[in-house]
């Protein structure tokens, strides 16, 4: 019997998804070499990681960029950097995803200009700009401008690509970081669709797209989702996403063509679910999470990128990225997954799960719309508070052991891992000279430009921003004139202003009757009495450009529940601002959270500032993804404690903070 003719088999094998690895670090030239190696290994698309200065609209020589250049991605400060990034890579033949949000218009303008320089037709260029600003206010923290101005930029990009780059996905509605920030599947679907409605409404209301072309807009809207280890639930979530998207685009926007209403998404499986403890367990987590977005043919991802096993330890090496790529290739080419129709059609279990998520997500969506839409829900702090509360509940379940994390809160006995035996060599190291080179390069670039052309281009950008004119034309003029990333964003900051998002702490619920917390609460009160103060005061600081604030917020919530008075001003602070707040608020302890790898620059800057302010007695603790050797360096510099992802028990951390305060004040 012909194996291909077996009952249930598809007449033709389904095509594999686009396979990517999220990559970028140190410099455009080094990242270009990494791209070429990954493509040679069978990767079928590019996913560009930009560094934090680029993502937040700063040049490498800006004060806030110190220690961040080339850390979590590639620095792109101007057209020359973009040329180097894609040197020898034909953009007309490539599918490129760019994880860029607030400056998405700028990076797309750079990308398109390089494509034209290569002789490509823009209409042939395929790829995605993430360009979803809403989740930045809620989780990732790389926003620049207020929500309304940011949505205007998004709508302008969509209108431009509809005309000039019809194969481009101009926005990638991103639920990925909502899940990392604590969203349940119901919240993830509901909040992400509320964002999609806000984007489509902004395009429709801008007057740039005729009503009869809204179907063309809808079919280019893609989504970027998170897949956790509960992969059966993740399958149901994706099917629910598709059902609701079909309903919304048909009923709210009148899109009749079912092909235009198709739910199109790419996925990165859950990076923050990876563990520092027993990191070898991350391999099976990644595989299970990949199954959640590939098993169901009717809800299968069209692009997948997987993290590396060691992302909880630091920046992955090329070999680590290759391992993740090979996981995708084994599933797509060795297994029989792509040979069958949808495996879950007619399943009573799956249908019930999907219906539950659809019902709950519809309630969440309607609640946001009743508030006036997603912008209002951001500005009032509703969405952020909901996510902080959900994450607090998730952490409570893990600490209680209700949610098992193998190697972390159960089955912790382990043999030494040969994967981490090399110590610091188990992750990619970014040469500190990278930042100095980038700083020198951007200054050299500025010196070699036509200053009058730059001034004229920036003046036009500011003038157009003050009207309702589509800003893509002015942005392209800035690219050609040699404007830098920081200058482009700076000009728009002058018109739109900057935005500090709500922290969400005020509405976050505590852990209730936790007996361990009761004991810590008594220590907090006793220590305050011994020091002669009303309450212990903790400053939680996020130095530099690292916007991943989930951990800092959870520490702040638990410390507040333990009786601390918590001072938390949100993300993106200079060392000077943190020092000034510590002195003015007369705190007992400074806690710094750094997840971007810039801890060896950011933390000493705060320590130096405290010494200069006459507060060298004030204890400082640090939390983040910090290798053991770096932790030793920080302790030698004067840091009292270093916490890493393996320190998952928040109440225990708060107890240790009390100990640090007692030690610093000579209390037994």
Indicate the proportion of strand residues: 5-15%
Low-confidence stretches: none
Structurally, how many domains make up the residues?
2
CATH architectural type of the largest domain:
Alpha-Beta Barrel
Shape: globular
Sheet with most strands: 5 strands, parallel
Count of DSSP-assigned helices:
25
Could you report the average pLDDT, rounded to the nearest whole number?
92
What is the C-alpha radius of gyration, as a whole number of Å? 25 Å
**What is the CATH topology descriptor of the largest domain?**
TIM Barrel
End-to-end separation in angstroms reads 81 Å
SS-derived structural category: alpha/beta
Instruction: Please identify which CATH superfamily of the largest domain we are dealing with.
Output: Methylmalonyl-CoA mutase
Family: Belongs to the methylmalonyl-CoA mutase family.
Keywords: Cobalamin, Cobalt, Isomerase, Metal-binding
Cofactor: adenosylcob(III)alamin
InterPro entries: Acid_CoA_mut_C, Cbl-dep_enz_cat, Cobalamin-bd, Cobalamin-bd_sf, MeMalonylCoA_mutase_a/b_cat, MMCoA_mutase_a_cat
Secondary-structure map:
Blueprint: E1 18-20, E2 22-23, H1 28-40, E3 46-49, H2 52-55, H3 79-85, E4 95-99, H4 104-117, E5 126-129, H5 134-140, H6 147-164, E6 168-169, E7 171-174, H7 176-180, H8 185-206, H9 214-218, E8 221-227, H10 231-251, E9 265-269, H11 281-292, E10 303-305, H12 318-334, H13 348-370, H14 374-379, H15 382-400, H16 433-447, H17 451-465, H18 472-481, H19 485-496, H20 515-531, E11 537-541, H21 550-561, E12 565-568, H22 575-584, E13 589-594, H23 599-612, E14 620-624, H24 628-637, E15 641-643, H25 650-664
Parallel strand pairs: 1-10, 2-3, 3-4, 4-5, 5-6, 7-8, 8-9, 9-10, 11-12, 11-13, 13-14, 14-15
């Amino acid at each position: 019997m012909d194996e291909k003719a077996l009952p249930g088999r598809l007449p033709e094998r389904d095509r594999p998804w686009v396979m990517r690895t999220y990559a970028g670090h140190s410099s455009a030239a080094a990242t270009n070499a990494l791209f070429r190696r990954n493509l040679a290994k069978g990767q079928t698309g590019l996913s560009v990681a930009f560094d934090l200065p680029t993502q937040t609209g700063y040049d490498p020589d800006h004060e806030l960029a110190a220690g961040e250049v080339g850390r979590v991605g590639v620095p792109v400060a101007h057209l020359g950097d973009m040329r180097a990034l894609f040197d020898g890579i034909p953009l007309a033949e490539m599918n490129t995803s760019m994880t860029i949000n607030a400056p998405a218009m700028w990076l797309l303008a750079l990308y398109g200009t390089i494509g034209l320089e290569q002789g490509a037709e823009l209409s042939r260029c395929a790829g995605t700009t993430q360009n979803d600003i809403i989740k930045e206010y809620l989780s990732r923290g790389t926003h620049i401008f207020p929500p309304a101005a940011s949505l205007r930029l998004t709508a302008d990009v969509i209108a431009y690509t509809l005309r000039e780059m019809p194969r481009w996905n101009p926005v990638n509605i991103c639920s990925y970081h909502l899940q990392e920030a604590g969203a349940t599947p119901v919240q993830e679907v509901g909040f992400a669709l509320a964002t999609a409605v806000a984007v489509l409404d902004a395009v429709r209301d801008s007057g740039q797209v005729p009503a009869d072309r809204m179907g063309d807009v809808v079919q280019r809207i893609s989504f970027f989702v998170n897949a956790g280890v509960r992969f059966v639930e993740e399958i149901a979530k994706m099917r629910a996403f598709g059902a609701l998207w079909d309903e919304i685009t048909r009923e709210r926007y009148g899109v009749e063509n079912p092909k235009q209403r198709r739910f199109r998404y790419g996925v990165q499986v859950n990076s923050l679910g990876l563990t520092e403890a027993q990191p070898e367990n991350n391999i099976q987590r990644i595989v299970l999470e990949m199954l959640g977005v590939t098993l169901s043919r009717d809800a299968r991802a069209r692009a997948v990128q997987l993290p590396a096993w060691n992302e909880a330890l630091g920046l992955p090496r090329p070999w680590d990225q290759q391992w993740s790529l090979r996981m995708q290739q084994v599933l797509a080419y060795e297994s029989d997954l792509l040979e069958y129709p949808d495996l879950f059609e007619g399943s009573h279990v799956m249908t019930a799960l999907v219906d539950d998520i659809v019902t709950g997500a519809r309630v969440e969506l309607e609640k946001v719309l009743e508030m006036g839409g997603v912008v209002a829900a951001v500005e009032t702090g509703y969405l952020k508070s909901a996510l902080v509360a959900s994450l607090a509940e998730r952490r409570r379940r893990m600490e209680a052991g209700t949610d098992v994390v193998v190697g972390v809160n159960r089955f912790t006995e382990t043999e030494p891992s040969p994967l981490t035996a090399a110590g610091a060599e188990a992750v990619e190291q970014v040469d500190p000279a990278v930042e100095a080179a980038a700083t020198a390069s951007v200054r050299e670039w500025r010196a070699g430009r036509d200053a009058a052309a730059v001034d004229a281009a920036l003046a036009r950008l500011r003038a157009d921003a003050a009207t309702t004119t589509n800003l893509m034309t002015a942005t392209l003029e800035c690219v050609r004139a040699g404007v830098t990333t920081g200058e482009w964003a700076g000009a728009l900051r002058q018109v739109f202003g900057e935005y500090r998002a709500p922290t969400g702490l005020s509405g976050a619920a505590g852990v209730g009757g936790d007996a361990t917390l009761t004991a810590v609460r008594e220590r907090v009160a006793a220590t305050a009495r011994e020091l002669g103060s009303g309450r212990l005061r903790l400053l939680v600081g996020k130095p530099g450009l690292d916007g991943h604030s989930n951990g800092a917020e959870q520490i702040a919530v638990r410390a507040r529940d333990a009786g601390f008075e918590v001072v938390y001003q949100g993300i993106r602070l200079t060392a000077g601002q943190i020092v000034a707040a510590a002195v003015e608020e007369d705190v007992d302890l400074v806690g710094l959270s750094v997840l971007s790898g810039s801890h060896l620059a950011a933390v000493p800057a705060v320590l130096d500032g405290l010494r200069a302010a006459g507060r060298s007695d004030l204890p400082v603790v640090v939390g983040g993804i910090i290798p053991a050797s770096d932790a030793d360096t920080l302790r030698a510099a004067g840091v009292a404690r270093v916490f890493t992802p393996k320190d998952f028990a928040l109440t225990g951390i708060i107890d240790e903070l009390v100990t640090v305060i007692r030690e610093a004040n000579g209390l037994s």
